[in-house]
Amino acid sequence: MFFPPFNQDISRYERKFVVSDMHYSGILQAVRNHPSAFGVIYHPRYINNIYLDSNDLDFFYDNVSGRGSRKKARIRWYGDLEGNIDKPVLEFKVREGYLGNKLSFPLKPFVLDDTFNEQVLKRVFADSALPDWAFEVLQHLSPSLLNRYSREYFVSFDEKFRLTIDSDLSYHAIEPVHNSFLRSYRGEDFIVEVKYDFLNDKDAPFVTANLPFRLTKSSKYVNGMELLYPQLM
What is the CATH number of the domain that holds 159? Predict the structure, then answer.
């Protein structure tokens, strides 16, 4: 599948911390007490994603195996999980090591309910103004996972580093033909993520060292697939 070349000039680092041994209040206190003076920049909101993958789950297995070059495709929207999805956005993420590019394209609205299936999604792609390369890639992908979580947003005083706290995670099986979304799992962990442009990497150790969390490799897509489809491992 063709993706545009990796562009370091628009890339950023994403450092993740999976926190399972601390209450939310403790995590929030650690962020507020950080010497980088993180402040709130946006109201909390729910994020929903439909992940897309090949029939052989190439994106999933590339991530599990730890390949240096990894890709991800998803449809993202905010607010309610089901019903009328008014402003969905198609996102392609390409990663080289810890650096990542993200390309985003608006999609036509659709309805997510028990009538949703792969054919509905293909019509959405056909009716949306997508570049030729993106539309071609989508012909080889199908819905593989639905997930949802609440996110809070912070930025450092110098505005070089963004930090998010994700909570209330849930993962739902999504099928090509019929969907009732009854098979699902809830995650109890919190995910803290620090994001910054590659030019600010020299200052990143100060930021991460002053967080009382352990830096981990984590992918919500992989976590959800492993919970819902343990036979894949």
Answer: 3.20.100.30
Residue with the two structure tokens 């992908």: 141
Please say whether the beta carbons of 149 and 79 come within 8 A.
no
Residue 104 CB contacts under 8 Å (≥ 6 apart), including other chains: 89, 90, 91, 92
Per-residue pLDDT of 191-218, as tens digits, reads 999 999 989 999 999 999 999 998 888 8
Predicted confidence (pLDDT) at residue 179 exceeds the cutoff of 90: no
Domain span holding position 132: 8-232
Give this prediction's pTM: 0.93
Is 55 exposed, middle or buried (CB count within 10 Å of its CB: 0-12, 13-18, 19+)?
exposed
- For the chain, how many structural domains are there in total? 1
Residue 1 belongs to some domain of the structure? no
Q: How many CA atoms lie within 13 A of 48 on its CB side?
A: 16
